[in-house]
Structures are given as structure tokens and as C-alpha cells.
Amino acid sequence: MPIAGNRQEIKKNNIDKLFFFKVLFTFMLIDFPTILMSKNIGLDFSPLMTDTVGGIPTFIKNLSTNLANFNSDLKYFQCYKFSRLKKFWKLYPKPKNFKRIFYDKNFVKPLKKLNVFHGTAEWLPLKLTNIPKIITIHDTRGLDNDISLEKRYDVKYAAIKYAANIIVTVTYTIKNELLNKIKNLDEKKIKVIHSGYNENFKNISDISKKEQILFVGTIAKNKNVIGLIQAFKIVNEKYKDIKLIICGQATDKEYYNELKTFICNNSLEKKIEFIYNADNEDLLKLYNESLIFILPSFYEGFGLPVLEAQACGCPVIISEQPALLEITNNSAIKSKIGDINDLTKKIITLLNNKTLQQKLIKSGFENIKAFSWKITAKKYIDLYKSLI
Fold this sequence. Notes:
Blueprint: H1 2-31, E1 40-44, H2 55-69, E2 75-81, H3 82-88, E3 98-103, E4 116-119, E5 133-137, H4 150-163, E6 166-169, H5 172-181, E7 190-192, E8 212-216, H6 225-238, E9 243-247, H7 253-265, E10 272-275, H8 280-289, E11 292-295, H9 304-311, E12 316-319, H10 322-328, E13 333-335, H11 340-352, H12 354-367, H13 373-387
Parallel strand pairs: 1-2, 1-4, 2-3, 4-5, 5-6, 6-7, 8-9, 8-11, 9-10, 11-12, 12-13
């Protein structure tokens, strides 16, 4: 029996390998005649194959769309890890001027046709040598050497310190964190390029405000969603008609169950609504109809929903987290990190003060002028060309 089992396993592995090379070289034959061996930029699109939402997928979608809109002499390629392709078979639509390349972390020869590889998701294929590489760092949580994340830590550390020619951070906050966490990191290699916001998010006067508070983001511990719910419970005792909308995917099931238990134990089921798969059209409506947007995070690398909310004319409350302070520039109310009483007080103050609401709306409109995906894309184009 053990021998038969081993034979079956060997047969399965051979089939897997045959499948791998058959599909890989099929795509290579389709795409590689278009490659001219000059000014070819590859961007890692692999995160989009897991059908997730969040900061990194949003970054990749918006950056690639705006890169394609620039009339430059660069050619762009969507680069997908074959290991993910085999499992999901989900490809993000190609913007104009983009082609596709498929590769595996242990088989990076296709990528050598590029002139620059851009690791958009805090990762680089370490076996890819002899071409310049850029890595974008969205936060530094992957550099906390937890035993369960040791492999991720090692790969990310090596990619940042040794493999990348240029390191891009989305905020100065993340740049400073990198320099503190990685000893002897060359500061000259680090460039700060703020992300933008999707300009489809805008204020729509025809949408009436509702008695609701909004949170948008992944449902995870670093977002401090439980703290928001606890503060809302106190607010709701005074404002009976107010609702809390929590919009995002639950990436931590244990934490999500903790939230649901608290809600059930405090009879808040009819006061708190979860929305898990909102698209941009849904979000546009939610931002416009909400009285307040709140991001009470313990940790953020950027905080894109803050800009989206401001673009829609929604007053914002943030925690005093450095990255959030950086991107809001005094255009939002600040709450002490993890302080439920302070957050409660700030919410009640804002609900009671129409003048303050209008002031925050106006300052929010001014703040978002500093953030544009067009500007972000142009800065990346300059980086790509500097390495060719």
C-alpha cells in the first residue's frame, strides 16, 4: 500500500509539472513576440488573483490604470505568480498598453525579458537578478519577526535590504519605520510617493444624509473595530436613531467572531450593519450619506478610505496614528489611540456641532487636492526611466 501511494503521489506531481509548463509556455508564446527588449516595465499583479479588497489591490488597480493613461514610450506588463494562477484562474482586466507575463518564484526566466520589475505588494522574486527592481512598502507589519510569520519576514527583509534598487514607501511614516527596523538600510534608496484617491469618489448633493456613522476597511485588529463598536454603544445610548455601518472583509475570523459576540451581548444587532463586498458605487453612496467617517486604527500605513470619505464631503475622525496624521494634515478630528472615552466624546461633539461638520467638509476638500493617482503614476514613471 505505501508503495502504491507513493506512485500515485509521483504521478500526481508529474501531472502538475506537465500542467505547469504547458500553460506557462502557451502564455509565453502569446505574449513574448510583443516584447522588444527595451523599456519594458513589469508590475506584480498577483494579489488581485485572490479576489481580495484592501489597500494593496486598490493601489495596483489605480496605479496601473493611470500608468496606462500616460502617453510614454514605456511598455507595461501584468506579472502573475503562476502558483496563484493555477489555483484561482482569476485575471484582472488589462488596461490599455498592458501585456501579461506569468512566472513562478522558482522560475523567473520570463521576467528577465523586462527592463524593470516593480514589486507592488512588498515582495520581490529573490532569484530575479541582473535587472533593476523597485519595491513598494505599504506598511512594516511584515517585518515584525513573529515565529508564525518567520518566512514572510525573511523574504520581505531580504527583498527590501538586498534585492531592491529603489524602495518606495507610501508615507514618510513608513520610511521612518523602515529605517528603525532594518539596521544599516541605505536611506538614499528610499523614495516617498503618496498614493492618490480615485476621483470617481466625489460629493453628490442629491444624496441625502442618514443618521449613520461609517467605517471602511478590513475587519482586523489593527483597525480597532472593537473600540469603535464600544464607543458607538455609548453614543447610541444618547442618540437612539444612529446606526453604525462597518464596510469591509473580515480577514481575521476570530476577531470578527469577537465583534459579533459583543454586538449580540449588548443587543446592538439592529444598530450595527456589516457590508462585506461593497464596490466603488456602493462606497460612493455610503460615504455621501454618512454623517461621520471614522478610522480609529492602532496601525496604518496610509489610510486611503480617509481620502475617499473627504472627497465625498464626509467629516472624518481618525486616531492619532502617525500615517493618518500625515495624510490628513489637520483636516480631521483626532482621537487618542485606543481611548474609548475620548473617541466617544469626539463623536458626540461632532454630531452636535453643524458648524464643525461644515468646517471639516471644507478642509477635507482642500486636503485631497494634494493626492492624485496621476501625480503618483508620473512619479513612478520617472523612477522606472531612471533605472533603464
